[in-house]
Design brief:
By secondary structure, the chain is an alpha/beta fold. It contains ten helices and ten strands. The strands form two sheets. It has a five-stranded parallel beta sheet, with helices on both faces. Helix 7 packs across helix 8.
Length: 325
């Protein structure tokens, strides 16, 4: 245990040091002023106890106590005031300044040992408590990180790194309620990779997986608002939720996505293809009402997607949903 003795009297410092070492405390640091003691404390973090004289020429011991207790990294160091006054008023002032105990000059050796043991026990207990708090904080942070990772794993499609179907359904439901409450447009895009089965059959599943990843990246790159969402809906189909987006905005986004995929010139060797991977998109827009549900918006976008496929693929088709169909 490291004990800092602060006293402007050299005789008193040496006497205290001798008494402490006799009691078994070998690591004693001596300081002749409060200013010097503050310098020592600013440079060291291993002081376990301070024995502070009250009457000193530069800064008195009580003011030094107040200064020490103002620093978060120092206020847990117990301070025993060494004073010539043991009247109630003087002692109350010492405790208010931050001291935990006092010794009256000249200190009795047995009393001094007892009070130092008590103060060091308090320091040990404080250190143990702080260590437990640090451990608890570290554990809490680790648990928070693990929960965040689990949450991510539960909502992310591992292949395409986009949202999965579960998260798509959650977001669509949330945005539906928001749009109904605020009487705003809500748009949904359904995106399907054209002739994906033949792509897989001709090039293999690894190439198919790469194609899905690239298309997912392209679709995501077309979004510019935090609330917009691309999700893998299933197989080679993606869903795109566009909050507060009207019919024309949805049409523009759908066409942008279609063109962006085509411009990547991902080779497709199938005889029915245009020698490159393309996508067809169906989109639907609604101002949600009590007579409609999110599944109706999905059904309308699916119907529009079917039309795009039927009309030759690599197209966009849209439906403005006004009532349940």
């Amino acid at each position: 245990m490291k004990i800092l003795v602060v006293d402007d009297s050299e005789l008193q410092r040496l006497t205290m040091e001798a008494t402490l070492k006799k009691a078994g405390y070998e690591d004693v640091i001596l300081s002749d002023s409060a200013s010097d003691a503050l310098s020592i404390l600013s440079a060291r973090t291993d002081i376990d106890l301070i024995l502070m004289d009250v009457v000193m020429p530069d800064i008195n011991g009580l003011e030094a106590c107040r200064l020490i207790n103002n620093y978060p990294h120092l206020k847990d160091i117990p301070i025993i005031i060494v004073t010539a006054k043991d009247d109630r008023e003087s002692l109350e002032e010492a405790f208010q300044a931050g001291a935990i105990d006092y010794l009256v000059k000249p200190p009795d050796e047995i009393e001094m040992r007892a009070r130092i043991r008590s103060a060091l026990s308090l320091k040990t207990e404080r250190d143990r408590r702080k260590a437990k708090e640090r451990d608890l904080l570290e554990l809490t942070q680790k648990l928070a990180g693990a929960n965040q990772m689990l949450r991510r794993l539960s909502v992310i499609d591992p292949l395409t790194n986009t949202a999965n179907r579960r998260y798509f359904d959650e977001v669509l439901d949330q945005e539906w309620k928001r749009a109904r409450r605020e009487k705003q447009n809500l748009s949904l895009l359904m995106v399907d990779i054209d002739l994906f089965k033949s792509f897989n059959d001709l090039l293999g599943h690894l190439a198919g997986d790469d194609c899905l990843k690239r298309v997912a990246q392209i679709l995501n790159s077309c979004l510019h608002r935090p609330g917009d969402l691309v999700a893998r809906y299933g197989g080679e189909e993606f869903g795109v939720v566009l909050p507060n987006t009207n019919f024309e905005g949805a049409r523009e986004m759908a066409e942008n996505m279609r063109q962006s995929v085509a411009e990547q010139l991902i080779a497709h060797p199938g005889p029915e293809s245009e020698e490159m991977v393309t996508v067809s998109l169906g989109f639907s827009t609604v101002v949600p009402s009590l007579g409609l549900e999110p599944k109706d918006l999905v059904a309308a976008a699916d119907k529009a997607l079917y039309r795009a496929k039927e009309n030759g693929r690599n197209l966009t088709q849209g439906i403005f949903l006004k009532e349940k169909e």
